[in-house]
Design a protein that fits this description.
This protein is mainly β and 149 residues long. The protein has one domain (7-148). It is built from 2 helices and 10 strands. Strands 1-3-4-6-7-8-9-10 form an 8-stranded antiparallel barrel. A hairpin with a 2-residue loop joins strand 8 (115-122) and strand 9. The longest helix is centred in the N-terminal third of the chain and has 12 residues, at 44-55. The protein is globular.
Length: 149
């Protein structure tokens, strides 16, 4: 996906993927060259440059138990693990279909800047969207796409 799919193909894969099983354990993360601002796709080259640079900051997510034994997701950065956030099942803010959601607002003093939505493409592979903050459904999202394996 990272080097062979267009931005539109990546977004279509997310839209068509079933929710599947929740990710668990340590997963490699690849930021995919699909990024939207206000619902508009950035040019492929710009999205690829931006996501390639962001990928250097961290290359895994860890899905495990968090506070009180609740399912939790952590971002593993080059400088260490973040505060993480709860992993819950729910409906996508993009299309109202089922997703697994990780809310990383604890990383940003409670501000909902980074919320991930995941769907399982195949066994051991998930596609996701980093949809930014807020809690309402949006047909004009700002954020990128990710793959986990």
């Amino acid at each position: 996906m990272q080097h062979r799919c267009t931005s539109r193909q990546i977004l279509d894969l997310f839209a068509k993927a079933p929710v599947g099983d929740a990710p668990s354990g340590r997963k490699a993360i690849a930021l995919l060259p699909a990024f939207q601002v206000g619902g508009r796709l950035l040019p492929y080259g710009a999205a690829r440059t931006m996501t390639t640079l962001q990928n250097k900051l961290g290359d895994t997510l860890t899905f495990t138990d968090g506070p009180g034994g609740a399912p939790w997701a952590y971002k593993d950065y080059i400088w260490g693990r973040d505060a993480g956030g709860p992993l819950t099942s729910g409906l996508s803010r993009l299309d109202r279909k089922p997703v697994w959601t990780a809310d990383f607002s604890r990383d940003f003093a409670g501000m909902p800047i980074s919320i991930h939505e995941y769907r399982q493409l195949t066994e051991g592979v998930w596609i996701g969207r980093d949809i930014g903050g807020g809690s309402s459904t949006s047909s004009r999202p700002t954020g990128g796409a990710i793959a986990l394996s």
